[in-house]
Structures are given as C-alpha cells and as structure tokens.
Write a structure and sequence with these properties.
Distance between the termini: 65 Å
Number of helices: 16
Strand content: 15-25%
Bound molecules: iron/sulfur cluster
Structural class: alpha+beta
Length: 409
C-alpha cells in the first residue's frame, strides 16, 4: 500500500464574516489501488520489489544517478568524516562548483584533521581567501585544533557531539551525522527545502515553513529498511544526498524536469502544475546601502595594507586602509579617515565606485589613490607588501575589487 502526505489550507470565517486562512492541515492519504500504468512506471524506477514508497524510489534513483563530487566516496566505500566535514563547512553559503577546487587544495595540503589542526590560522586563511564568509575559515581551524587536541583526531559520531565543535550548527551536525556516520537524521538545505515544499505543496512561506518542511523531509527517511529494523547505521546519508542531488539536477528553481523525476507520481505541486511557485517566500528585507572609502597607496611596486581585527566582519583578513562603512556616509567624511602619510597632500579619486553585496547589506566604496616616495614609512599597524605577492594575502573579494579598481587592473 502506498501513502501520500499532502498539505491543505484550512479556511475559517473571521468576526467580519469574511473567509480567511486559519492554518494548514497535514493529510495522510492511503492509496490502496494504484492504477496499473502508475504501478508499471514505479516498477521501472524501483530497485526493491516492495519499494513503492518515496524513500525507496529516491534511493533507487540515487544509486543510478548520484553526482560524482570530490568529497563523495564511490558507492560502497565508507565516507571519511574529515572530508564530509570539510566539504559541509565549505558548502555553507557557497556553491558546489566554487567549492570543488578549494576542497582539492585543502585535502592536498592537509589530508586529515590532524594535519589541519597543526596548521597556522594564517595559512588556513590564505588558502581560504576568495571563498568568502571568513568566520567559517576561523571556525574550521578552531574545530580541527579541538578535534586533534580533545578528541584524539576522531570526530564525534553523534549530532550532539558534533554540535559541541566550533562552526558546526544544527544543519551541519545533521549532515555530517547522516553522511559520515549513517545516523537517522535529515539535514535540510535549500535544495531539499525546495523539493519537499513542492512534493507536499507547502503553502506556508519561508522561513516560517521551516519546521514543517523539516518534519516532512524527515518522513522521507522512514521507508529505509535497515533503519526500520532499528539499525542505527542506516542509509540516511544517501537519502539526504539523493534529495540534494534531485534538487540540484532535476527539481531546479526554474523549469524543473518533472518528467525525469522519480517522485513525479506523488508530487502535489506537479499534479497542480504550479511547481515553480514553491517554496513560497515571504518578501525579502534587504539591509540599507552602506558607503565608504578605500585608500590604495603604492610605494613603487608595493601596496599599503593592514589586518582587520580578529572579531567581526572579515575578521583577521587583509585590507587596504579604509573609512567606516556606514549608511548615508558622505564622501567628505570618508576622506577624512584617510591614512596620514608623509608627502601625501592630495588624494586622487578614481572614477566610479566598487560595489559588493554582503549577506546583510550592500556596500559601495569610493576608491582614492596616492603614490609615495621610496622610503615612506607605513603608519602604525600598516605594512607594505609587494603587489606581485598579493595572491598570497588573505584578501576578501571586496578588497580584491577595490585594489583592482585602484591599480587599474
Ligand atoms: S515532480 Fe517536479 S516539482 Fe515534484 S519533486 Fe519532482 S521535479 Fe520537483
């Protein structure tokens, strides 16, 4: 017997006599009689004889179509917790394509957590430069140090244990626990959120719908035979990765390829024909535009830089001197924060602005340039670095843009 969960809107009359949305009901439909054409299709998609449920269909599809990723072992090979953890941290807020080369560089240089835990934070930040969200790199290093020092170089194998480590929140703990240790837990990322919202036609907008989507996604683990038998080492990791792959290759944000989807028989949004409208989203609030100035100063073939404070946005990264970044900042006030350098009486303002979007606010930087004489000393806490070695500095993308603009690259 197959079953389908669907969500339905529950309407009620308000005191003014108007009908309005009162909530959502989760309805379980037991399908005793599966039409023969559907049954035939399912038989083709399902490896196990009785696997007509979504979890079994998903696993059968995954066994045939799983993506090859640098951190994913071949079928039948146990996952390496270090590689799973490293990839999950890198994939936070960053796409698979961008992460691939960084992952390869990291594992070539630091093949296990012992090696990474022995590296210096500066080296890790340098290697991370360009991946963005630099607090992840600092936490990555702190986590490796802790696993090496306090856990004998072995990652804890439970969600709770993983969450006690720096940089590992509920999603990452769930992903590592499922993928590396087979724990029965379903991590819900953006891809899974979309697939589940469509499968069950979840009307509630994000982010309010997150708990409901988590609950529905977890049900996709339920048909796992080994887990049903109480075996802690389930194929939970494969279920999660199957949904991730389905979301990235078939159930895409635009024009999902529903004809190729192993779950299309039981997809509520596909049945309605409005799959692209899911997940529903509440209107986005973007932060106010901040403005500031960056000062690109050269001494021959050297550039003036400084290191940002350890805590806060882009903590510990390298930057050119600059003003505060404030909403409503005017150019005059920003220019007053220019570094004081012997021989610099006028700053040259470059035409145009550098724009960058952080998670919480967009930024516009005006770039000023100046050239100083060969022996000019750097102001306190600043230093000269050869322009030729800038690639080795932990420069965030916004600073790469500002420097390129200032130097006319
Ligand atoms: S049938 Fe279409 S909308 Fe539904 S889960 Fe599959 S790809 Fe997504």
């Amino acid at each position: 017997m197959a079953h389908v969960f669907i969500t339905r809107r529950v309407m009620a009359c308000n005191p003014q006599g108007k009908t309005e949305l009162a909530g959502h009901a989760l309805i379980l439909i037991l399908k005793r009689d599966v039409p023969s054409s559907t049954a035939t299709r399912r038989k083709k998609q399902t490896a196990p004889e009785d696997g007509v449920g979504r979890p079994a269909l998903l696993l059968a599809w995954y066994d045939r179509h799983r993506r090859r990723l640098p951190w994913r072992p071949l079928p039948g090979v146990a996952a390496d917790p270090y590689r799973v953890w490293l990839s999950e941290i890198m994939l936070q807020q960053t796409g698979v394509k961008t992460v691939g080369p960084y992952f390869e560089k990291f594992v070539a240089r630091w093949p296990d957590v012992e090696a990474l835990g022995s590296a210096s934070l500066d080296d890790v930040l340098r290697m991370w430069a360009g991946l963005g969200y630099y607090s992840r790199a600092r936490n990555l290093h702190a986590c490796a140090v802790k696993v090496r020092r306090d856990h004998g170089g072995v990652f804890p194998d439970t969600e709770e244990g993983l969450r006690s480590l720096p940089g590992i929140g509920p999603y990452t703990a769930s992903a590592i626990a499922a993928i590396a240790f087979g724990r029965r837990t379903m991590p819900v990322d953006g891809n899974i959120e979309r697939v589940v919202a469509r499968l069950f036609a979840v009307e509630e907008p994000l982010p309010q719908a997150k708990p409901l989507i988590q609950q529905l996604a977890t049900m996709l683990l339920a048909g796992d035979e080994r887990s049903r038998a109480g075996d802690e080492k389930s194929r939970a990791g494969d279920s999660a990765q199957a949904l991730m792959d389905l979301g990235s290759s078939i159930c895409t944000p635009k024009k999902p390829a529903c004809a190729l989807c192993p779950l299309n028989d039981d997809c509520a949004a596909h049945t309605r024909g409005d799959q692209e409208t899911f997940p529903r989203k509440a209107p986005k609030k973007t932060g106010a535009l901040r403005r500031g100035a960056a000062f690109v100063v050269t001494r021959g073939d050297q550039l003036l830089v400084q290191t940002r404070p350890e805590k806060g946005l882009l903590g510990g990264m390298t930057e050119v001197p600059g003003s505060d970044w404030l909403a409503g900042q005017d150019d005059k006030a920003a220019l007053q924060q220019a570094p004081v350098l012997k021989g610099v009486t006028r700053w040259h303002r470059k035409a145009g602005v550098v724009t960058h979007v952080f998670t919480h606010f967009p930024l516009e930087l005006v770039v000023y340039t100046a050239k100083v004489a060969a022996r000019t000393r750097p102001p306190a806490k600043m230093r000269w670095v050869p322009i030729a070695t800038l690639a080795g500095e932990a420069l965030p993308n916004v600073m790469r843009k500002a420097i390129a603009h200032g130097l006319g690259f």
